[in-house]
Amino acid sequence: MxxxxxxxxxxxxxxxxxxxxxxxxxxxxxxxFLFPASIFSQPVINFSPxxxxxxxxxxxxxxxxxxxxxxTGTSNLSISSISTGSQRFRLDTVNITFxxxxxxxxxxxxxxxxxxxxxxxxxxxxxxxxxxxxxxTAKVLLTxxxxxxxxxxxxxxxxxxxxxxxxxxxxxxxxxxxRQISDMNGDGKNDIIVATGNYFIHCYNGNSSGTAxxxxxxxTGYNNNNTGAVTWEEG
Length: 235
Prior knowledge:
The chain is mainly beta.
């Protein structure tokens, strides 16, 4: 009889554990019906790259850098604002309306501009406010350096590469016509239209530095019946 009490306590302890597990199992099942999975889903924001370095750029120029915001969460990401702390860096807001909605597993490409006015080092922060569960107020470091360049006839200020056109097998990458147009990105400088032999029309930032900033592109060779390069006279 003296040994039966510990056995009884041990059996009681096991019974309590089973009851607890059963209660948790019942709660889990009820939660599935009362609280849909969408309540527990959250958006997750990620940046590529996580920091942006413009390196050296000509003073007085305006250079762009494309970056990507991705939503790796399980519900829509809503970005309410994107801002910088100085006028030397700014978000390209053309065709952008806040809030910006990014679905699950979706990425969106954006552009930030850098405008150095003196030969100096610059730094700023791109602040992104959203409903992200991981970083609702995310910050991307921005850096760049302005350098003085004395203009010399024949110097290359920036250069671009004509891309392949997937809709044609006879790629002629040479420019057919080049023409300046009125300012499109707000820097007060005329921009440039380039029509190429492989049926592309590209619009470039005329005030770039180092690398070209493609602002928009149009394909005039999307099928065999409707194709052709645009010459200067036709443009």
